[in-house]
Write a structure and sequence with these properties.
302 residues; 2 domains; two-stranded antiparallel ribbon; alpha/beta; 10% strand; DUF429 domain-containing protein
Length: 302
């Protein structure tokens, strides 16, 4: 951070409140392949109706989500993407210290990943993961750990703030394990690169009207709905409906089992509807103009 930036929010882009008519949540996936079972999309309107789970023919792919965001999503939608839109920067003054091509901001990072992965199918990011310079900063499968990857991996400022809220964030530089979010984040950055001229992305963009993308952490919605920390996943309709009711939403029909990707998307869409007008969530104390250009911020982290 530069002089005078600590705790300063001047220059950080904030949308006006009470402008959204729809609220969507997308549980993302970094898996290889044309279709990803881990992607789920849910949307709701202003009011208290239960969110609708959207299931296209053939299931979701990353390209299908991109097309929905660009062409089919309702106007004035606040949409949350469950992925990291950037990598750690503030702790070392760079995304990739020592690499001459290390970008100066998040948009440069998205462009770098897109350029290196331009031939990777299905908006995957395998070429970036295996890039000789980038790989020096990642923990990869097969016990491959770059020389610049320390401990559990570097965290963004917003992820450090998540820890203070009792959450358990993983470094976006960690690409190993069931709970890792690194691959999802890298593939998501390819989507953000393609969306940047179509939809504003908070807090990187100014945003006065229309739809807006924010980063979400679905555990925040689950905890707000009374789910125990460490047990945020809901795998039955009964569990999901209890959480929906706790935040003032109508419940969904049916009973029995539900996959946690779908339940995460449904609950988080409803939570976004309740949280969008909370001014404090758009004014986190640690979000500076510098972080808004480089690391971004998770909506719901104070």
């Amino acid at each position: 951070m530069g002089p005078g930036e600590q705790g300063a929010t001047a220059g950080v882009r904030r949308p006006p409140l009470s402008r959204f008519t729809h609220f969507a949540a997308i549980d993302w996936s970094g898996a290889v392949g044309a279709r990803q079972k881990g992607i789920a999309v849910a949307i709701c309107r202003i009011g208290a109706d239960a969110p609708t789970l959207l299931v296209p023919d053939g299931g979701w792919s990353r390209l299908k989500v991109l097309e929905w965001l660009q062409h089919a999503m309702p106007a004035d939608t606040l949409v949350g993407l469950d992925l990291g839109p950037s990598l750690p920067f503030a702790d070392r003054g760079a995304f990739f210290p020592g690499w001459a091509e290390s970008p100066a901001d998040a948009r440069g990072l998205w462009a770098l990943i897109e350029r290196i992965c331009t031939d990777d199918p299905h908006l995957s990011a395998s070429s970036f993961v295996d890039h000789a310079e980038a790989a020096r900063h990642f923990r990869r499968h097969g016990g491959r750990k770059g020389e610049f990857f320390d401990g559990r991996g570097r965290l963004r400022v917003t992820e450090e703030a998540q820890r203070l809220q009792g959450l358990n964030p993983y470094s976006n530089l960690n690409l190993v394990g069931a709970s890792q979010v690194g691959k999802s984040s890298l593939t998501g950055m390819r989507v953000l690169h393609r969306l940047q001229d179509t939809l504003p992305i908070w807090p990187f963009d100014e945003s006065a009207t229309g739809s807006l993308i924010v980063e979400i952490y679905t555990s925040i919605a689950a905890i707000a709905a009374g789910r125990p920390r460490g047990r945020s996943k809901m795998r039955t309709i009964a569990e999901l409906n209890a959480a929906l009711a706790a935040i003032g939403s109508a419940t969904v029909a049916g009973d029995g089992a539900i996959d946690d990707h779908s339940s995460d998307a449904i609950l988080t869409a409803s939570w976004l509807r309740t949280a969008a007008d909370r001014a404090a969530l758009w004014h986190p104390a640690q979000l500076t103009a510098a972080l808004a250009r480089t690391e971004g911020w998770t909506f719901g982290v104070s």
